[in-house]
Amino acid sequence: MKKKGLALLLAAVLALSLLAGCASGGNSTDQDNSADNSQQTHGGNNADSAVKHLNIGWHTKIVTLDPAQDSNWNNNRISVGETLTRISDDLQLQPWLAESWEQTDELTWQFTLRSGVSFTNGKALDAEAVKAALARTSELSQRAVTMLNIASMEADGQVLTITTNSVNAALPNNLADFVGVIFDVDTIGEGVIPVGTGPFIIASMEEGQMEMTANRDYWGGVPKLDSVTIRYIEDGNAQAMALDNGEVDMTFQLPTENVAQFEGNDRFTISKRTGSRSQIVYFDLTNPLLADLNVRKAITMAVSRDTLANVVNKGNSEAATAIFPVSFSYGQVPGIGYDVEGAKKLLSDAGYTDSDGDGILEKNGMPLSFTFYTYGSHGSLLPTFAEAMQASLKEVGIALDIQLNDYAAHTDILKAGGFDMALNSYIMAPAADPQYFADIMFRTGADYNYGKYSSSALDALVAELDGEFDTARREELAKEMQEIIAENCPWLTLGHLKFQVVASKSVTGYETQPTELYLLTKDTDINR
Question: pLDDT tier at 384 (50, 70, 90 boundaries)?
Fold first, then answer.
């Protein structure tokens, strides 16, 4: 009943209607190295040409590339590690290290690997190597357990057989996630530089920067660049300055205010793609006030998502309606609209009053005053959105006490529970499919369901989605789930950030798409 390559169809209907492509005149990502390095960037790769060197300004330090570590998105972006499958520019599933796959029964998949592919240390890529890599990641990463759900694997030459614990219709899609990156397992660990199969090889990982060289034996063809320096510049103003004065050739996800300074400048290209990186407010439903649907609905009504996207973030977000972006084929679900007066009436009808005239409503002696946790530096997107929400909710008699932490401390607070409200940023569809986010967020007891929302109806839809292979039905399920969420307000999605790259016009061939999985490719080039 199942056909070879069945999962190639999964992303077709579920893809974004807005296509995201390879930027060919723009550039992408991060920051640069030194002025000296930025001088060695011109020419071709033939014998009589100058060395082609690219300097990138990176917005954060790359401490590890271990795919078992949470939120390690950089492997595919810098083209060191690769996966069995990949997501194309128009969000379709494609072969990569696996040239084909087929489903032999509901739980079993066979992936046939490309022949002639080697790790950059010379070891052959075969099914045993892939099995070892995926087994290690699944042992150490809860994300891998959720997305891949592997029960067992068998390796036979270039054929890897994966059996899942339960039906996992999105397995081929989910193998494109960073948890599916294949490294030589002997090169993963503290103090060890990982070895992959991609077009670039890490030469050094030093304090403040990473150096990479081209993999001349890359199975997909010789890279156009000879070398790359990734320089860690975490401050947006410093990134912008480095790009403007030529110290770096490209930057990735500059803050909105820094992107604006390059608009209209013919030396640079700004690439923007509506993505699935979304800002989501958690409600801790163990708080009796937030357990009241009237309060959650009033908060939702009191916040203008259009203002956040188009005024606060200056058009660099897409305003949210329900959960998924409206530019997704399965995201076009209406949610609760902006209505300040309606929010006030809802709270009043539910018995909330301002008995002491302090501007904060209360009921049964309990004021509508909440601690609101988020992370990032002052002036960055999440704290800025939090402050805008604080002002909006004050208008309807709700007070927020904003608490700003680093990401690790913030996550610990959410895992511990009892946080009232919290604002996070997530990439909802890294594999161009709704199953990932439904599995980690919507289910009762899911890994990221920190607010402890539980709905038997929603659980049933998630379970059906996990085992559904028909693309049209999967889209219907995604919409039905969002309708339940819009009605019950367990979360509030504020907006969906646009994937932004600002680069010198001399840089071409880099990749931008809503998954945010990819950036550098073998075709990335620089010609000044």
Answer: very high
